[in-house]
Amino acid sequence: MKVLVIWKALVSEAYHKKLKELAKFKDIELTLIVPTKWHNTILEKKYCEEYKIIPRKVILNGHNHLHWYSGLEKIVRQIRPDIFHIEEEHYSLVTYQAIRLAKKYKMKCLFVSWQNIYKEYPFPFSRIERYNLEKADYAIAGSKEVKDILVRKGLADDCISIIPLGTDPLLFRKMESTELRSRLRLEAFTIGYIGRFVKEKGIYDLLKAVSQIKNKFNLLMVGSGRLKYKIKAEGRRLGILKRIRILDSIPSSQVPYYISCMDCLVLPSRTAKKWKEQFGRVLIEAMSCEVPVVGSDSGEIPNVIGDSGLVFKEGDIDDLFSKLELLINDVDLRTELAKKGRQRVLDNFTQEKIARETYRIYNKIMC
């Protein structure tokens, strides 16, 4: 079974683990089309023994739903895959480009969606979406909420499977962090955040909540975004700037070490008019590292955490503060949540499990 995968995220090596697991199935011959560059990230992985990697230039680099690939039809003609796996949204131009080729060369095709808010798109996205939904053979939805939206838009229920994100529990595990903590000057209970520095991620809520903590603490924030310098200004205003450590985005291979420096990780996302949390990958990465997690109830976060962490009402600073206070003062609770979090990942969110479920879909659509 020849499978051709196209996905902009494959510019980063961290996203290849799922494909490595898929390649373990003996009847799968896997080829990946990857961008030579996405935003400012240069392709990190150009060769792999388990599958073939074809780097291609992306037209309109960095535009999530308007980009497309040069020379894609030539690759399709050469490989002649049985399945075209398009790890992109159903309203994206690249999905339209790939599905048109799949239909032209009589291949099965599927797309992946994480859009968990029902939207009516303007032209040309409305026409792109309609074509993709009509012509795709199958869809993978990131959550039940996403599946319900696809069904509402006309896709048959039996042509959609729910598969969440996964992580690698061998990479994301508790690491020795004494030296790194010392280098980062983390001398107290460390509350962590990893992600984009943007308003909808609840950055200001987190700062206001931790400013109420009377115990000694550090706030370790790793990421990038337009609010980076405003975080410092807000920290200064709240009188906690000396307790904050801000780091730029780090290589994916180093993330487990930084997570292991944390005593808890917080994802304080806030629902906006056009966005709510679609999953929260950093939650399962922290849980896999046996770090207790605290998340808001925005979007999919409560379903990811389950009973293996603490959930607060989004935008409720006092509720977030109370959850943090609870963790700071209860070592037994932290230990319990650390163990439960790791087990929840092993049961539900490993890349091996995600690959098995994807393989079942391949067999289903080829029958």
Biggest beta sheet attributes: 7 strands, parallel
Instruction: Estimate percent helicity.
Output: 25-40%
> Which ranges are low-confidence, i.e. pLDDT below 50, for 5 or more consecutive residues?
none
Oligomer: single chain
**N- to C-terminal distance:** 12 Å
Task: Count the E strands.
Answer: 17
CATH topology of the largest domain: Rossmann fold
How many H/I helical runs? 14
At the first level of CATH, what is the class of the largest domain? Alpha Beta
| Gyration radius, rounded | 21 Å
The chain-level mean pLDDT equals 96
Please tell me the total number of domains.
2
What's the CATH H-level superfamily name of the largest domain?
Glycogen Phosphorylase B
The proportion of strand residues reads: 15-25%
Strand order of the largest sheet: 5-2-1-8-9-10-11
Q: Which CATH-level-2 architecture of the largest domain?
A: 3-Layer(aba) Sandwich
**What is the 3D form?**
globular
Summary tags:
367 residues, alpha/beta, Rossmann fold, 2 domains, seven-stranded parallel β-sheet, six-stranded parallel β-sheet, 37% helix, globular
If you had to describe this structure to a student in words, what would you say it looks like?
The structure is a single chain. By secondary structure, the chain is an alpha/beta fold. It has two domains: 2-166 and 350-366, Glycogen Phosphorylase B (Rossmann fold, 3-Layer(aba) Sandwich), CATH 3.40.50; 178-348, Glycogen Phosphorylase B (Rossmann fold, 3-Layer(aba) Sandwich), CATH 3.40.50.2000. 37% of the residues lie in helices and 20% in strands. It has helices at 17-22, 72-79, 93-104, 125-135, 144-152, 178-183, 203-210, 228-238, 255-259, 281-288, 301-305, 317-329, 331-348, 351-366, and strands spanning 2-6, 29-35, 37-38, 41-42, 52-56, 58-59, 68-69, 83-86, 108-113, 138-141, 160-162, 189-196, 217-224, 244-247, 264-267, 293-296, 310-312. The strands form four sheets. It has a seven-stranded parallel beta sheet, with helices on both faces. A six-stranded parallel beta sheet has the order 14-13-12-15-16-17, sandwiched between helices.
